[in-house]
Amino acid sequence: KVLIFKVTSSKQIGSGHIYRCLKIAKRIKIKKIYFFTNNFKGNFNFLIKSYKIFILKNNENKFNNSIDANETITYLKSIKEKKIFILDNYFHNLNYQKKISKYVDKLIIIDDYLKKNFCDMYINENFYSKKISTNLFLKKNCKKFIGPNYSFIVSKRLKKIRKKKINLFLFFGGYDLNNLSFKILKYLKEDRKLYFRLVLNDLKLKKKIKRLNIKNLKIYKQDVNFYNILRYCNFAIISGGSTVWDILYNDIPLITIPTAKNQIRNLKELSKKNKIFLLYKIKNKKNFNNFFYKSLVNKKISKLDISCIGIKKIVKAIES
User: Fold this and answer.
1) Which residue in 215, 120, 236, 216 sits closest to 172, CA to CA?
2) N or C: which end of the chain has fewer CB within 10 A?
């Protein structure tokens, strides 16, 4: 058996797709693992150091599905073993899925949108309050893993370390393109009751933030174990990616600021059910500070009961 991940990352796309795939790769018993990816600007291919990488020639801004499919199929034909193909990116349409499925033994899709697909196994960790139409799944025997109980949480809850100050967890994806971390720190830096714990990958932004001269701030590299930081935290402000589930699983109240279109529907659903505080945009200091301090004292937020065994179930289903 060969397990193949088809995944993309860049400044615009972020690192989330690669991290999800790596979580599966590290837990699966299949020995041969390949990554098909691209050299998009600001990619995170350096994270895939332990696995064989095939670089495809497409351009992020002028992505051509047909060229990509043909190049992928050429590689697939050269692999003689049984092939499990995991697709985790947004470039590939239904036609692409149908083409690829002829050359693999099992096609698996990891998705954040809910759209028509042609796969043997479908994974979507987002929160859905309404029943999902079966018409979306064109393969009759498609195995479905949908909802937060199938999120990519990889660690059990750690014991909290109590702190006198409010320890604020901040993270806005692989690249904080909107400078959200800088704005928030600038607006809140005078509050001595806060201690900031920021996960940041961008070195330029890190230098800019250091010039704010905030003593009650610790900056971590992105490859850090998030759970070790979350032990100290009792509030979070993040974008709307997969980290949402890690925060909710650890019962930490959070403000989410969406940084991508695919995050909005999920965050709206969670906000309606009073699971998160949703802020669409930071307008100015007054606007943000009002929202933050109101959220901080709001006791109406309700817990979302999430399992941490979703990843185990997913891995088992891939192997079977």
Assistant:
1) 236
2) C
User: What H or E segment, with its residue span, contains residue 278?
Assistant: strand 277-278
DSSP state letter for 226: H
43-64: pLDDT as tens digits: 999 989 889 999 998 888 889 8
Residue type, 193: K
| CB neighbour class for 192 (10 Å; exposed up to 12, middle 13-18, buried from 19) | exposed
Give the residue carrying structure tokens 């033994």.
Answer: 105
Q: Which two tokens stand for residue 184?
A: 């928030």
Tokens read off for 32: 């041969």
- Per-residue pLDDT tens for 236-253? 999 988 889 999 999 999
In sequence order, what are the residues at sequence separation of 6 or more whose Cβ sits closer than 8 angstroms to the Cβ of residue 311? Answer: 23, 24, 27, 151, 152, 153, 154
One-letter amino acid at 240 equals: G
Closest CA to 259 of 175, 148, 186, 168: 175
The strand pair at 254-256 and 277-278 is best described as parallel
CA 94 to chain centre: 23
C-alpha distance from residue 245 to each of 50, 89, 105 (Å): 26, 19, 31
- Encode burial over 149-184: b for 16+ CB neighbours within 10 A, e otherwise: bbbbbbeeeeeeeeeeeebbbbbbbbbbbeebbbbb
Confidence of residue 258 (pLDDT cuts 50, 70, 90): very high
Please give the structure tokens belonging to residue 267: 């965050």
Residue 99: how many other CB atoms lie within 10 Å: 18
Beta pairing partners, 219: 198
Long-range contacts of 55-63 (CB under 8 A, 24+ apart): 58/91, 60/8, 60/10, 60/12, 60/13, 63/91
State pTM to two decimals. Answer: 0.89
Distance between CA atoms of 17 and 243, rounded to whole angstroms?
12
